[in-house]
Design brief:
alpha/beta; about 250 residues; two-stranded antiparallel sheet
Length: about 250
């Protein structure tokens, strides 16, 4: 059985005659209704969101609140099932290995998880090729940037705090959700985007200039946020992030 990705390559591996191999035991679907292909195709509407197994419970909770089906991705997941998804969530987690953006790790960088890195980078690139909506959260925001050729700052000061203010570009996806040029967000990161990846636009910054949110200039709906929209903060933040999840979950069909 061939895996979805190779650890050292972004290319997706395929079986004989370029047909994706099956791996039913590796598919874990968390569903609000029957998730079989036949039932979903016969339904009046459905939305299926992909997320890697590393995600915490709060991600699933937010997606369930949007009324979507959830496909949990592992390296053995069939390409065919991933390609049928309506969106990809890249969740938070440990640091991305600096090898992926051509740097040596410094003393602040956490030990890497190369299997997770390679899986999520490959999923991100495939989703971009399919113009599948993507929501990158914290580490996922950084994965999105690296997948598009960008780099990361391996350590920044004063961002592992309860909250801080960000300024938002009003003509962006986030500006539409927030409705105001500034908002307070939670902050749990010690790394940030350095050089911006291809076809990406900065749509939110912290007061110190740290890039806090990005979106693609080329794709229909691709957004990364450095904070955690699945976690609570202020009533306004909770309300606006619930709207962000809702818009993301319906972006492919809108």
């Amino acid at each position: 059985m061939q895996p979805l990705v190779s650890i050292r390559k972004f290319k997706v591996k395929r079986g004989r005659n370029s047909t994706p191999k099956l791996a039913k035991s590796a598919i874990h679907a968390y569903r609000t209704s029957c998730n079989c292909i036949r039932c979903r195709r016969n339904a009046r509407w459905y939305h299926l969101i992909a997320i890697t197994r590393c995600a915490g419970f709060s991600y699933y909770s937010k997606l369930r609140e949007c009324g979507v089906n959830i496909l949990e991705i592992t390296p053995e997941t069939k390409l065919r099932q991933f390609d049928e998804c309506d969106g990809l969530v890249l969740p938070g987690g440990r640091d991305v290995c600096p090898d992926w953006y051509g740097e040596e790790p410094n003393q602040h960088t956490q030990p890497p998880d190369l299997n997770r890195d390679s899986l999520e980078l490959a999923l991100c690139k495939r989703a971009l090729n399919l113009d599948m909506p993507i929501l990158g959260v914290c580490r996922g925001h950084q994965v999105l940037n690296v997948a598009l050729g960008g780099t990361l700052l391996q350590n920044i000061e004063d961002h592992v705090v309860s909250r801080h203010k960000v300024s938002i570009e009003p003509d962006s996806f986030l500006g539409f959700v927030a409705g105001e040029p500034e908002m307070y967000v939670n902050s749990l990161h010690h790394q940030a985007i350095g050089q911006l990846g291809r076809n990406l636009r900065v749509i939110a910054k912290a007061e110190d200039g740290t890039i806090e949110a990005i979106q693609s200039k080329k794709h229909k709906w691709v957004v990364g946020v450095q904070w955690h929209p699945e976690m609570g903060l202020t009533p306004r933040f909770n309300r606006e992030m619930a709207e962000l999840w809702r818009i993301f979950s319906r972006a492919r069909s809108s």
